[in-house]
Amino acid sequence: MPETDETNSTLIFFVNGKKVVEPCVDPEWTLLYYLRNILRLTGTKLGCGEGGCGACTVMISKYNHTSDSLRHYSVNACLTPVASVHGQAVTTVEGIGSTKTRLHVVQERIAKAHGSQCGFCTPGMVMSMYTLLRNNPLPSMAQVEEYFAGNLCRCTGYRPIIDGVRGLTFDGQKGGCGKLDCCKLRNSIQHGATNGVSVDVMNGTSSKDEPSTTYEETDISHALHVESEFRIYDPSQEVIFPPELKVHQELHTQFLVFKGPRVTYYRPSSLKQLLDLKAVHDDAKIIVGNTEVGVEVRFKNQLYPVLINSTKVSEITSVTMKDSGIEFGASCTLTSIEEILQDVVKNHPDHRTRVFTAILEMLKWFSGKQIRNCAAIGGNIMTGSPISDLNPLLMAAEATLTLCSKERGERQVVMNHRFFTGYRKNIVLPDEILLSVHIPYTQEDEYLYGYKQARRRDDDIAIVNAGMRVIFEAKSTVVKRIVLAFGGMAPTTVMALNTMKELIGKQWNSSLLETGTSLILKDLPLPPSAPGGMIEYRRALSVSFFFKFYMTVRGGLNQRFPDLVDPLTEEEQRAIQVHEYRPPKSSLLYQKVPSGQTSLDPIGRPMTHTSALKQATGEAIYVDDMPHFENELYAGFVYSNRAHAKIISIDETDALLMDGVEGFFCARDLPGERNKIGVEIHDEEIFASEKVICVGQLIGMVVAKNKPLAKRAAKQVKVQYEDIKPLIITTQDAIREKSYYGQWTIHKGDAELALQNSPHILEGEIHLGGQEHFYMETSSHLAVPKGESGEMEIFSTTQHPSLTQNFVAKALDVPANRIICRVKRIGGGFGGKTSRVLGVSIPLCVAASVLNRPVRKMLDRDEDMQMTGGRHPFLGRWRVGFTREGFITSLQVDLYANGGCTLDLTAAVVEKAMFAVDNVYKCENVLVKGFACRTNLPSNTAFRGFGVPQGTYICEDIITRLSAFLKMDTNVVREKNMYMTGDKTHYNQIIERCTVRRCWDEVLEQADYTSRKSAADKFNKENKYRKRGLSAVPIKYGIGFTKAVLNQAGALVHVYTDGSVLLTHGGTEMGQGLHTKMIQVASRVLKIPVDRIHISETSSDTVPNTSPSAASASSDINGMAVLNACEILLQRLEPIIAKNPKGSWEDWIKDAYINRISLSAAGFHKTPDMMTFDFDTQTGRPFNYYSFGAAVTEVEIDCLTGDHSLLRTDIVMDVGESLNPAVDIGQIEGAFIQGVGLLTLEELCYSPEGVLLTRGPSTYKIPGFQDIPREFNVSLLRGAPNPRAVFSSKAVGEPPLLLAASAFYAIKEAIAAVRKEAGLSPVFRLDTPATAERIRMACEDFLTEKIESSEPGSFVPWCVKV
């Protein structure tokens, strides 16, 4: 198409109030790429690249000249083309506030309310809330939830984020949360639930070893932040919209053409221009928000040479109100449609707007706000996704589409079963565009409803969805016409055509329901190998949705014809209720510091995370935020796409011919042992040499001048394979093939004899699924050669700098003293960045060494998930003997862990799982066998809990099965077998200071367990289609590295002549607040304010031979090392202080310097009395001490869909004398919610060929804002000092994750109620995670009975249980 005089090829927009003029824009650049790499605004983060996590959220402001109005939109910068922001204003986190100037109230609140831990998600959270405030200065909590729905956090558990911004809402300002007069606090004091007194504690010892039973109201605090100290939001102080964008209207009407090396981008300003372009480029992609094309380009390797942005064509963005309905231009965004429909529904009779109401309800769960702000209705239709949320509704409503082409003009088609012709194909001709969508009003005798079930409630794609519409003969209950459209049941959105035909003329009664459900199953067959799996569940959903539709319509008919149609019962009304948002509530209880503690002493106070403010403003620097070196290169990895195969050849020729590619590296560059890594044994290759042993194994690496080029070049490397048998994917495969790394046994007493003599014996099996770490910052590294003596500096996201240092030295064949590993901060780790980072960091160092140039790599989310492994899936087989009174007499457990293709840390994980199979229960006769299975999956590795969750959950499965057999309350069984102080575990370690019973009693009291259990039972008797479950679970967690050598730490303290202190220790900061606690420890010992102490980084050149930041032991061992270093300094200062006792710290330091006293001290600590467990002699002391806790959780399940909600969780956790209650409570909440993800949501799907099918937030679901308990109460056990850790504290990072078992077993209780009512056995197997699929299919009923299952082995499943 010829360019006109009005054509513009220069991009003009504003960023944070500053004008940006870009004459050479590449249409392939996203806004995120431009912000981070061109403008160097790195506060906006790359989390997933597919608009699924919200880390990249920015605000875009648009001025409408026609209406003279300004609107603000939160968008995903990772998907937004920078070309699309022409004439708009972009605001990033750096543009609203800074620690150097002034914080914005949102930044201040999220940070000071402890809503930022690792901090990687924080800028996105800030910008989502900021955008809401710009549009509505006093929003509701429901609006907050809506704007946050597109943001994920892996650390906090969301509660502190919500609490932080609550005060900015209408709900919060009217006293919605009631924190200052906490009824939970009053109740707990009244019942003596949070007992204890403060004790004077120093150096890991306590003045009182025995817990106190004194109850003092003044000893309790429940406020982690003071609301009154926050500034009030003043919208008048916001940055103004750039006047230039208001004045120059031509910026919005120009015909734009941006030409890049591979893609040309057009933005026509008239329909004629658009049709002319489509006539010439009939294969062009028309984009509005780029939400689908952006994903296809990034993850499906699609290249679209021509992109056309249609947002400035008035005919395609207009909205026309007609008598028959509303006609939306195809480029209308979902947000604009939502706003218009809300207004229409408000001002029209209900019966006229039923289709609009259904669309509005569906839009609540349609992705996140960022996506809805950009995505268009036309894109949703034309993309043709078989799980589109809107297409079933539009088909049910028989919406009319207007198509248009230059040659043939306009034509109209009805969106029905003929529209979609195949997977993502439709009847629209290549040169046609979708001009508009007409959505009709409904009539009085017409009903339309929509349904959706997803893995996660908010911001998730559907498993199955539906749009259902029925029209009755006038003033009757006879069906005149019915339309049933389904998504997720075929390669396209489909209709149940035969069902629709057969139901015409029938009365709307139970006979129609029976006929309809049977016919739907025939209309919608799913082959057993269908993509997406869950075959029986998807079919069950199709008829469950119809059942809900039937009842909803029946309710409507009853209102019209009460004499003809029976009303819905209360239980039927509950069955059709849609989910309603309720602002979450919480109470937090912890022990105040003693009245005599000086204000200078920070120990025990809820001090804000030291980096929180920087994280909230985007000033905190992560590895990929570091400025680029002038000659820096970027790495692109070549991965195996086979699980077990011989490498025949590697051909990098085409990649090396690409301009800007500087080299290729593979096993040829690392001969012999230099190519080997491993924690226990060196059994893993950095680059696969002769064969590959999993999909995602690294074969080679391209280095190029930038990231896009490196990625493209890596795809040009050709690898030929020859498959090898056997292919071992699942744990069952490994058992069959006897493919083990090793086997271990722990025995106590005579388990077999005791079993034979037991009055009762049960046996069972449970499979525990794996889990992806999903840290927000993926594995990121920057290798910088120093140019001499083989020296290399690596900036890394490792949790174990010394391990990285040593293996880099080994690969480069230099001594370790030539390698410096630096860690500033890590955007989440959870164990996943302990050993698995080596496969990323070492190749970079190899290339950097050879080329003498810096090399950088940040894994994309799909790369990270595919390459780095996760939590071990476990298979547990058990036998238990017990008495009729419920006492356990014998326990035998076989544990099988799917370790993947290398040993890594699997042996240690299995070992800890074996130690944990007792949880908190005593048994004198135990036999535990552990098997580390070798499979052809990416090597699984450390993950928060490190085997203990698996062992604990298997134990709790035994307890619940035993209780059900005896028809005894599980709590009674637990209490009868619960450990006490002085008892020995099955590995013969004495349990000292056992507080589990205190935690247990307090949480039952705090949760009002007895009365709520009765209430849940009453609810279940009154409700058939919804059930509730209530479960209490106690936990025990051994603290310390089971390998004794790792229980050591070092610290280095420098005091400068101005009195400032630079502190370094061996632990890494990854959000857990370790640096904050270490500063608090140093502050107490040195008796100086915390603002005089600074931690810059963790580095191998300051503290050598560090242990990993893992095993929940970092605060213990590093805290003692810091304490030791500070005490050494104080001892040196004693003579100076004695001479000038009234002097200041600064005076003493100056005098010490003048007197040539060293102001630098190295501290060291080794945990005493620990001994690695010897499986041969069955001796050892693997743990320093134990942490205890207990939780009560209540859930409600939808028996027809499998959906569930956490109604309330109460936790009591023993953290000793808390160093920092805010950090500790944050860890408890975050760990619990991560555990909820493990047990209820997060499901890793592997194909039978070993390909990970869930490689991003679109397919792998971690908990979101809607998944936390509606009421979340956390209490720290008081009066429980721990003399074996610094200042009598206890570890907190991992133990609370185990408490999520209370949610899992509450779900199981609810399912058991369903089954019991149906006459089925309430004793049943439920593997983890308890997904909606597993819940629904366990709730067997008359609908699931209609579904036939395919015989296992008769088909190849889409995914397998590994």
Structure overview:
The longest helix has 26 residues, at 535-560. A hairpin with a 2-residue loop joins strand 7 and strand 8 (205-206). The protein contains 40 helices and 53 strands. The strands form 13 sheets. Strands 28-32-26-39-36-37-38-47 form an 8-stranded mixed sheet. A 6-stranded mixed sheet has the order 9-25-53-52-51-43, sandwiched between helices. Strands 1-10-11-13-12 form a 5-stranded mixed sheet, with no helix packed on it. The two termini are 54 Å apart. By secondary structure, the protein is α+β, with helices and mostly antiparallel strands. Mean pLDDT is 95; it is low at 176-217.
Net shape:
globular
Tell me the strand order in the biggest sheet: 28-32-26-39-36-37-38-47
The structure class reads: alpha+beta
Give a count of the beta strands, DSSP E runs of length 2 or more: 53
- Beta-strand portion reads 15-25%
What is the percent of helical residues? 25-40%
Radius of gyration: 31 Å
How would you state the average pLDDT, rounded?
95
* Unreliable parts: 176-217
Number of helices: 40
Main beta sheet = 8 strands, mixed
Question: Kindly, what is the distance between the CA atoms of the first and last residues, rounded to a whole number of angstroms?
Answer: 54 Å
